[in-house]
Design brief:
Shape: globular
CATH superfamily of the largest domain: Periplasmic binding protein-like II
Low-confidence stretches: 1-26
Length: about 425
């Protein structure tokens, strides 16, 4: 090798440059995507997207790593702290706000602007994906939450679908017949349980946080509204839930509904898929109603978005996000799991390629979803996004409080005070 060329090679290696390498090698880059969407259909749809992206971006590869929702936020925080974060990941409600406080994810205002911020449904972008005037996550889908119930079980008792808290209690007790192994309802006592508790809190006018004059947030949890809500949930569970309810996960509750042990299920339309697989003969007997209002209308909602981490490949990761949001790509991904994926992006919601392929049993929920989403919000975010919502969900503060009441026989006011202490410690860190 000539001395001059050798010097250039050494200099370029020292500077981290690669002008003498072939163009394709210089541009080769590997993205890592962490996904909490672990069902086979969702994994297959994501892999198909990745294959298309790799084909369109020669020299680029994407490694897909799947993980369950439980503990995922802690893993993301730990990865940021250790300096080995992925390039992008799916996140649940409140997680973008929590992660933004670590400094480990990048704002996506430029991505949102190119996609069209006004094209996102309801609060899915401006509240659920944002904090302090910045967009931290682009929402892939939302899910309207409500009660799926056995129409014949209520008809047997001449009880109408409930429209108030008192009517809900009456319906739950009427449905329950322990001799026939029939029960009305329970929350899941896992990470998903917080959404159900939050729905009842919100419908009783409890928002957990209230804005302070001059900016910032004040905790408002240990109050008569919260106590009233937990007293109501305690009464329902003692009168109309199976004895082992505090040990059930969301998937187990879905199966109990499909097996005709539970007469009601609260959360996403995903339960219809479980029914379709396990006990399709009862599908036509499943109805739907929104959370009965207490002092106001209120509901939880499902929400999943994408965040991009602060790595050397952040711009390429943003490119993947925009690629996923191309209409054909996002329509196909949405339809891969339609019982959970309600479009957060208006161009998909109204696309004929989407509306023509929605399963017929979902049409009623789909029609009512935009209305439900008007008075629903992610946990603690009714007044706007805050940086603690994700940890409130991930630490399961709301369902654990009910578990203390039911399992440890803790008086409701004491359990609420303890939860208030947990929340206060969280916001004062």
């Amino acid at each position: 090798m000539r001395p001059i060329i050798a010097s250039v090679v050494i200099l370029t290696l020292l500077l981290g440059l690669s002008p003498l390498l072939p163009r394709t090698a210089a541009q080769s880059m590997k993205l890592t995507l962490w996904s909490t969407l672990t069902q086979d259909e969702r994994v297959a749809a994501m892999r198909k997207l990745i294959e298309r992206f790799e084909k369109e971006n020669a020299g680029t590869s994407v490694e897909l790593v799947t993980m369950p929702w439980g503990g995922a936020l802690d893993k993301m925080n730990a990865a940021i702290l250790a300096g080995n974060a992925p390039d992008l990941s799916t996140v649940g409600q409140g997680w973008p706000q929590s992660l933004s406080g670590t400094g480990g994810i990048v704002p996506l205002d430029d991505v949102a602007q190119r996609l069209g911020p006004d094209k996102f449904v309801g609060t899915s972008l401006r509240v659920m994906g944002s904090l302090d005037g910045k967009v931290w996550s682009v929402p892939v889908y939302v899910t309207p939450h409500g009660f799926f119930y056995r129409k014949s079980w209520l008809a047997e008792k001449n009880v109408a679908p409930p429209k108030t808290w008192d009517e809900f209690y009456t319906a739950a007790v009427a449905m329950t017949d322990r001799k026939r192994n029939r029960y009305a309802w329970t929350i899941p006592f896992d990470i998903h349980g917080g959404k159900a508790v939050w729905a009842w809190l919100l419908s009783d006018g409890e928002t957990i946080f209230v804005p302070k004059q001059g900016g910032g947030w004040a905790l408002d949890f240990d109050n008569p509204r919260t106590t009233e809500t937990y007293e109501f949930l305690k009464r329902i569970h003692l009168q109309a839930a199976p004895a082992g309810a505090p040990s059930y996960s969301q998937s187990e509750i879905e199966e109990l509904f499909a097996k005709e042990v539970l007469g009601m299920y609260y959360e996403t339309p995903g339960v219809l898929l479980t029914v379709k697989k396990m006990n399709p003969k009862i599908l036509s007997d499943v109805g739907f109603f929104a959370v009965p209002p207490g002092k106001r209308r209120g509901s939880g909602q499902g929400w999943v978005g994408l965040v991009v981490y602060k790595t050397p490949r952040a711009e390429l990761a943003k490119k993947f996000v925009e690629f996923m949001f191309r209409q054909d790509n996002l329509v196909e991904f949405t339809l891969s799991y339609p019982y959970y994926h309600f479009p957060a992006y208006q161009p998909v919601l109204t696309a004929k390629a989407y509306t023509d392929h929605v399963p017929p049993e979902l049409l009623g929920v789909a029609r009512g979803a935009p209305e439900i989403l008007k008075w629903s919000a992610g946990i603690s975010m009714w007044q706007g996004p805050n940086p603690w919502a994700g940890e409130i969900e991930a630490k399961m503060i709301l369902p654990r409080t009910l578990a203390k009441i039911l399992v440890n026989h803790m008086p409701v006011p004491q359990a609420v005070r303890e939860a208030d202490g947990e929340l206060r410690a969280l916001i004062q860190r």
